[in-house]
């Protein structure tokens, strides 16, 4: 094994980095920098040094990591999170979110601003942000940024609202800062403290691209342990294709790289508790696939004139059931339930909205657009439908219509938060 391979092996063991994916030249350059700083001229001497000095290993890691990040990177995951916030916060009164790795803080602070913009109260959510780099974390805690950190931002009003501009620096306000707690942590060696946190939302973007398959697999298992079943996982776009379907169900909403954490490997005791849960997926599936309901669904589909008894199922739970099935990736049955529901009750905006979501997730964007428009026809104030339709129009290249739709969504949100505060005062 040559000296570079030895260093590569060390980095792989300690932080999961694969030389193949990062590129030999970046590792060579990092090693050269560290050798010069330590006045070492032979690579073998450096290997001996870094193998025995924890301090030097930390400095080498700092030199190798890629801290590249910016506010609202990729933007769609944040828009998507905004649409999920109300449902999530109803389910979890204190929402626990994780940004890992967080680098210099732009990602977790973007999450905080998204939640505040969605109308969440500061006391109703907590964000934990982890990274291996102390240098990146120190900068994150300071929260003073240059214009370059805003290169992905479309809505500049958010900068005026949450930052104070002093000369060429942008200082983040305390309201956002105090929503995020930063800690040093190694993703390949996550401590039990984090493993047992049961996060409701996890952002893990732009790190696993530097890992080999084995390391990715271990990391996904750790992320799965850290989340509640049904929790929302957001990956980076290049990583989303390697996210294992056995642990996470793809939400299949374009450009959001989002997944639902599956309930798997649960213990006997938990299984028993789960079995008694009202909305367990198997129970719901059974409810809709046993007679007479399944025959009724079939009847609706084929227009068969045979007389089928009406289902005895309470229709008010149907939308909730369809939502649960869709969250677990059982799209076909979820669609059938919604279609059945909308054929009986034409004016239920939530059923049309869910049909839009599922079709969007399945890539049937023309149907999705039709269903979101139908939702808005029935309920012009449907915030989530406005946001989704805006994302869809943007994806289809219709930028100006997308912008108008988003402006409409913002007006709806503004007026609903004014109504809320008026009713509280
Ligand atoms: C490209 S940044 C991604 C930041 C942010 N998630 C984003 O997408 O904008 C990658 C970060 O991963 C961190 N990192 C690298 N290896 C790590 C490890 N083993 N554990 C935790 N963080 C790590 C680096 O320090 C760096 O800040």
From TrEMBL:
InterPro entries: Bact_Chemotaxis_MeTrfase (IPR050903), CheR_C (IPR022642), CheR_MeTrfase (IPR000780), SAM-dependent_MTases_sf (IPR029063), TPR-like_helical_dom_sf (IPR011990), TPR_rpt (IPR019734)
Keyword S-adenosyl-L-methionine: yes
EC id: 2.1.1.80
Keyword hit for Zinc: no
Gene Ontology MF, one: protein-glutamate O-methyltransferase activity
Pfam family, one: TPR_8
Enzyme's top EC category: transferase
Domain CheR-type methyltransferase: 1-240
Keywords in alphabetical order: Methyltransferase, S-adenosyl-L-methionine, Transferase
Signal peptide boundaries: none
Record GO biological process: methylation
Protein name: Chemotaxis protein methyltransferase CheR
Protein source organism: hydrothermal vent metagenome
């Amino acid at each position: 094994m040559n000296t570079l391979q030895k260093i590569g092996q060390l980095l792989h063991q300690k932080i999961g980095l694969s030389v193949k994916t990062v590129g030999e030249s970046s590792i060579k350059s990092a090693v050269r920098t560290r050798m010069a700083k330590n006045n070492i001229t032979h690579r073998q001497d450096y290997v001996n040094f870094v193998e025995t000095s924890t301090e030097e290993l930390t400095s080498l890691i700092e030199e190798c990591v890629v801290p590249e990040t910016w506010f609202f990177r990729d933007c769609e995951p944040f828009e998507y999170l905004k649409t999920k916030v109300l449902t999530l916060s109803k389910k979890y009164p204190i929402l626990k979110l994780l940004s890992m790795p967080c680098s210099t803080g732009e990602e977790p602070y973007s999450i905080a601003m998204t939640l505040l913009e969605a109308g969440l109260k500061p006391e109703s959510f907590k964000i934990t942000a982890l990274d291996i780099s102390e240098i990146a974390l120190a900068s994150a805690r300071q929260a003073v940024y240059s214009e370059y950190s805003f290169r992905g931002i479309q809505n500049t009003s958010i900068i005026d609202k949450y930052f104070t501009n002093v000369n060429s620096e942008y200082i983040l306000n305390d309201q956002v800062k105090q929503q995020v707690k930063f800690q040093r942590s190694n993703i390949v060696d996550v401590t039990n403290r984090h493993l047992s946190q049961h996060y409701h939302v996890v952002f893990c973007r732009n790190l696993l691209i530097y890992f080999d398959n084995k390391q990715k697999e271990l990391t996904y298992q750790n992320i799965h342990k850290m989340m509640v079943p049904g929790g929302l996982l957001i990956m980076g776009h290049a990583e989303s294709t390697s996210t294992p379907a056995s642990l996470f169900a793809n939400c299949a909403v374009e450009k959001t790289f989002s997944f639902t954490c599956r309930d798997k490997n649960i213990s006997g005791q938990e299984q028993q508790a789960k079995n008694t849960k009202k909305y367990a997926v198997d129970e719901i599936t059974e409810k809709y696939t046993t007679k007479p309901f399944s025959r009724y669904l079939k009847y609706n589909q084929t227009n068969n004139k045979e007389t089928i008894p009406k289902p005895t199922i309470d229709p008010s739970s149907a939308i909730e059931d369809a939502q649960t099935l869709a969250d677990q990736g059982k799209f076909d049955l979820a669609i059938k339930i919604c279609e059945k529901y909308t054929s009986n009750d034409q004016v239920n905006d939530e059923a049309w909205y869910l049909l839009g979501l599922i079709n969007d997730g399945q890539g049937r964007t023309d149907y999705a657009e039709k269903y979101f428009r139908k939702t808005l026809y029935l309920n012009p104030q449907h915030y989530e439908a406005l946001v989704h339709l805006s994302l869809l129009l943007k994806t289809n290249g219709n930028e100006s219509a997308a912008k108008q739709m988003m402006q409409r969504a913002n007006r709806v949100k503004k007026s609903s938060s004014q109504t809320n505060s008026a009713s509280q005062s």
